[in-house]
């Protein structure tokens, strides 16, 4: 797979990742290399990653507890303190080796430490490969509210080694699949159509699907880095999806949902809203609902759940002037941004989802 050029950085794949990394890790350029991992990537990914690095730059490992609940400022403080104690300076570089929590938080730590040091994202989950690590968004949650604190700043590079996917459980693979489906729905109908025949795809086809997904996201981000226009398209499924994810995180009576699972539900709900607003046909909606439900287990929401989820949407970072903003489908493969919806229509979307 050829290297993809983003606005101010490059995205490398598989064997070219380590060629690139070993070229830049020179002692006259970087004083120290910090590798940020969580408990999972420390065990399953770090040994193979370290074996590929050939550098004279001193290496230090910083390990986080695994889980979305640790993607917060308190964890950042711990990492900043570790960087100080281990001799980090403005010529240090951080490699974020992990899923979306590690790349989001690690990027934010790097952007703010000593007013900004270089960082490289090495995503190890399907979700982080096709979404979280690409595009320059870095940040943390505020309580259970997703991604409320952060900055937009590109990494020095993103290195995608698909061999890391062999360490993932099925649930994590599905979580990434949701974002890939989203890329097809908002931008490329022929790409979406490939997911309708996913059971017929061979494992070696996955690299090609990942590459296409990264191309779609990079193209959109390159047109609108700071999310003032078309980049909002990437939020399809996320206005309701983030609220659902936050609601499940803060309620002990609800099972926590992986990000992709919550977004998959959000895409069905927001497709229903798109249909009711006349932006897609009923056939298109039924197609989307059917194929997403084929892969993602349904979750039941009662009236109280729905009311609380609607209340949480007011904190969505896309909102402007107190109005909840949606990115809705305008046919499969197209998007319409800055749309609104009544609470009554949202309730109807949940009712239809619950059927």
UniProtKB/TrEMBL annotation:
Residues 62-173 form the 3-dehydroquinate synthase N-terminal domain. Residues 176-319 form the 3-dehydroquinate synthase C-terminal domain. It is an enzyme of class 4 (lyase). Its EC number is 4.2.3.4. One of its GO terms (biological process) is aromatic amino acid family biosynthetic process. Catalyzes the conversion of 3-deoxy-D-arabino-heptulosonate 7-phosphate (DAHP) to dehydroquinate (DHQ). This is 3-dehydroquinate synthase.
């Amino acid at each position: 797979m050829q290297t993809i050029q983003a606005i101010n950085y490059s995205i490398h794949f598989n064997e070219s990742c380590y060629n690139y990394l070993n070229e830049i890790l020179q002692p006259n350029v970087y004083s120290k290399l910090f590798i940020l991992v969580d408990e999972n990537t420390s065990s399953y990914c770090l040994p193979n990653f370290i074996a590929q690095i050939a550098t004279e730059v001193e290496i230090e490992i910083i390990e986080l507890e695994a889980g979305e609940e640790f993607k917060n400022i308190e964890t950042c403080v711990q990492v900043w303190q570790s960087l100080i104690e281990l001799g980090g300076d403005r010529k240090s570089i951080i490699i974020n080796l992990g899923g979306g929590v590690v790349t989001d938080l690690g990027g934010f730590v790097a952007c703010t430490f000593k007013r900004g040091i270089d960082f490289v994202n090495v995503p190890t989950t399907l979700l982080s490969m096709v979404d979280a690590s690409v595009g320059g968004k870095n940040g943390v949650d505020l309580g259970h509210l997703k991604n409320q604190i952060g900055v937009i700043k590109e990494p020095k590079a993103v290195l995608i080694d698909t061999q890391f996917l062999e360490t993932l459980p099925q649930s994590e693979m599905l979580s990434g699949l949701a974002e890939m489906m989203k890329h097809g729905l908002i931008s490329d109908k022929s790409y979406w159509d490939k997911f309708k025949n996913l059971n017929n795809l061979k494992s070696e086809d996955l690299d090609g699907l990942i590459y296409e997904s990264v191309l779609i996201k990079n193209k959109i981000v390159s047109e609108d880095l700071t999310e003032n226009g078309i980049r909002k398209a990437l939020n399809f499924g996320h206005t309701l999806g983030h609220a659902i994810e936050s609601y499940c995180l803060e309620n002990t009576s609800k099972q926590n949902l992986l990000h992709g699972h919550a977004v998959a539900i959000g895409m069905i709900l927001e497709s229903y809203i798109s249909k009711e607003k006349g932006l897609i046909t009923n056939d298109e909606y039924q197609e989307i609902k059917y194929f997403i439900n084929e892969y993602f287990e349904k979750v039941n929401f009662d009236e109280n759940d729905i009311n609380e989820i609607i209340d949480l949407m007011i904190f969505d970072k896309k909102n402007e002037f107190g109005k909840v903003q949606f990115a809705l489908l305008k046919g499969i493969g197209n998007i319409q941004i800055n749309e609104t919806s009544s609470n009554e229509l949202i309730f109807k979307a949940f009712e239809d989802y619950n059927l």
